[in-house]
Specification:
The protein has 184 residues and is mainly α. The chain contains 7 helices and no strands. It has a single domain, classed as Up-down Bundle (Heme Oxygenase, Chain A), CATH 1.20.910. One of its GO terms (biological process) is heme oxidation. It comes from Ciceribacter selenitireducens ATCC BAA-1503.
Length: 184
């Protein structure tokens, strides 16, 4: 799928903070580093997913449903003998105003992480982890690009969108993720 002008705009606007987040996530070359990654992901995703789950998506979103991972992340922690209660939570509030523009920016980050998960699932496999023993969320996230493709189509077709508001929401979401990983 070719990249639309809107996705290119978001990619360029968020590139520096996205790179900082990737560096913070690291390579998780051992189980303690992987647990830190899961805790960071859970601290990032749980508050946003909770808010999204109680938000009525705009009619223009059609049948699109975000990919929720927080429960799978908690199961992954439990499978590895770690307590979800010990997970650091980020204090950032990236979704204070849930207009369509902000939702699109936030979902750009959440759904876009599917693409990175395809690399991370291989890193987890190198540690002997798979869906049944600590990498369920990665398997769920990386096994099908359908949700990303549906979101990309929604993003590309959205009308009357303030691209700057959308970009600010994406930046805030990346900042929220970075905060969660730094606290993990």
């Amino acid at each position: 799928m070719s990249m639309s002008a809107r996705r290119q705009f978001l990619r360029e606007r968020t590139g520096p903070i996205h790179q900082r987040l990737d560096e913070c996530v690291g390579t998780f070359s051992d189980i303690p580093a992987y647990l830190r990654y899961i805790r960071g992901m859970l601290g990032f995703r749980r508050p946003i997913e909770t808010q999204l789950a109680s938000t009525r998506l705009p009619a223009q979103f059609g049948n699109f449903t975000p990919n929720y991972l927080a429960d799978a992340l908690e199961r992954d922690l439990a499978a590895l003998g770690a307590s979800p209660a010990a997970t650091a939570r980020s204090e950032a509030q990236p979704m204070s105003n849930l207009c369509a523009d902000r939702l699109l920016g936030t979902l750009y980050v959440l759904e876009g992480s599917t693409l990175g998960a395809r690399l991370l699932v291989r890193r987890a496999a190198a540690l002997g982890l798979h869906a049944g023993n600590g990498a369920e969320h990665l398997q769920k996230q990386s096994s099908d690009l359908g949700n990303w493709n549906a979101f990309a189509a929604l993003l590309d077709s959205a009308r009357e969108v303030d691209d700057e508001t959308m970009a600010q929401a994406a930046l805030a979401t990346f900042a929220h993720a970075l905060d969660a990983f730094e606290k993990a």
